Amino acid sequence: MSHPVISLASARTLHLSAQNLLKPVTRKPVAADVVQAIRDMGLLQIDTISVVARSPYLVLFSRLGNYDPQWLEQALPAGKIFEYWAHEACFIPSEDYGLLRHRMLNPQGMGWKFSQTWFDEHQTDIEALLGHIAENGPVRSADFSTDKKSASGWWDWKPHKKHLETLLTSGKLMVSERRNFHRVYDLAERVMPGWDDASQTLEQSAAEYQMLRRSAQYLGIFRPEWLADYYRLRRVNTKAVIAQLLMDEEITPVEVAGLEDIYYVHRKQFPLLQQATESRIGSTVTTLLSPFDPVVWDRKRASMLFNFEYRIECYTPEAKRQYGYFTLPILQRGELIGRVDAKMHRKEKLLEVKSLHLEPDVTMSSRRAKDIHGAISRFAQWQGAEKVKTVKVPETLTVFWERDWQI
Asked: How far is CA 347 from CA 200, 382, 383, 386, in A?
């Protein structure tokens, strides 16, 4: 049986369309767009590195443009999103709480994120912590001193952070808000009032089916081995899920010219797929991506789909780094064409581009140079910069624009 054949460029476009990176946003974003963007991706990975904007804010910027980062901070205490382990630590739409709840009820399956031994050994302290929060309200890890100040009393407790994390993984506590990006913990029943495990929690098998089904939608186009990574699922029967999705006509098989094996396209992309088989489709977005953007977080997928070999080097000793501490992939009209190592100097209102590396096969044109310049300028402006300073930039780019410029 023959399947429709699409180009690699079209396959990339289908994926970017599913990730809301098909066309730039032309209207001014509003607060509701933040929660909708998270719904459209399914989840938003959290990372605390702040050499430029922290990753979750950056992922939203790539899709929304010049939005107010406070909108993400407000969505958590407003109960529109919650925080839990999904791909990794993630912000997740609150309506998906039942999708992840089975993990909280069986935290022993969460690997290093939960230790039953720790829980058992510190049971008295953990129950005292829960009692303290019930009586006195939410707490931060910073509320507890690490110094022994008295023989008794609450504030001399050392292993508080691990207790809080353990209680978060087991679903007894939730993050009610973040202050200066630090977690504030409260009782789950106060964060999710009215929640009923018996009637609202999906069983593991049903939840994992839904996660795989949704992953197909969030990816837009996929190979079977890409599906489980989105929610970091293990030991799942992806074949059976794909068979069911095919039967339900939620996905359809295609071939991608130049790539082996069968790919599957999700129903939400069928209108674009029709265009892909008839004519050329393409993304018109140029932006910088976070290292933890869904487009690149699966490094094998980024390599296969975009021919982009990528890894984050902040954990690599400086002398051994090839590209830089926290490099941001450059997405330009459907291609990953390079990476930027940048640092935001907030007091000076300056974005420093420490280095910009283009992929070996990238040829420069005035449009491409203009696209990159615009993407860096928008990125800088969103963070409050008034000037961009570049240090190490290919000469093929400086032919088209100045090394330093005002925003």
From this structure: 48, 15, 11, 11
Please name every residue paired with 175 in a beta bridge, in sequence order, or none if there are none.
185
The DSSP 8-state label assigned to residue 343 in this structure reads E
Distance CA 289, CA 339 (A): 9
Phi, psi of 41 (to 5 degrees): -90, -20
Cα distance between residue 114 and residue 117, in whole Å:
9
* One-character DSSP codes across 165-196: HHHHHTTSEEEEEEETTEEEEEEHHHHSTT--
pLDDT tens digits, 310-336: 988 888 888 888 888 889 999 999 999
353 touches 342 (CB < 8 A): yes
User: What backbone torsions phi and psi does residue 386 show, to the nearest 5 degrees?
Assistant: -110, -10
CA distance 337 to 160: 45
pLDDT in tens, 240-272: 999 999 999 999 999 999 999 999 999 999 999
What is the rounded distance in angstroms from the CA atom of residue 203 to the CA atom of residue 206? 5
DSSP per-residue codes, 272-330:
HHHHHHHS------EEE--TT-TTTSSHHHHHHHH-------TTS-GGG-SS-SSEEEE
Sign of the torsion angle spanned by Cα atoms 196, 199, 200, 201: positive
* Sheet strands (E) in 191-267: 221-222, 251-256, 263-266
